[in-house]
Amino acid sequence: MGGVYALDFAAVLLLADAMGALNPLLVDILPEIEPIIVRAYARDSD
Asked: For a designed S-S bond to 41, which of 4, 6, 20, 32 qualifies (C-beta 3.0 to 4.6 A apart)?
């Protein structure tokens, strides 16, 4: 319980913008890599 189950896309995009890394590729690929990131966090918490 209490684990990561999704990413806050708005927060990710705001952070990328603040870092000067926001680009169309990130916007397009973020939904596709979200499950990979979530699984990685779940694996690390076990």
From this structure: 4
Closest CA to 2 of 33, 36, 40, 45: 45
Are 8 and 41 within 8 A, CB to CB? no
Say if CB 36 and CB 6 are below 8 A apart.
no
- The Cα 40–Cα 6 span in angstroms is 12
pTM beyond 0.90: the answer is: no
Please list the rounded mean pLDDT of every run of 10 residues in the chain (46 residues): 86 97 96 95 78
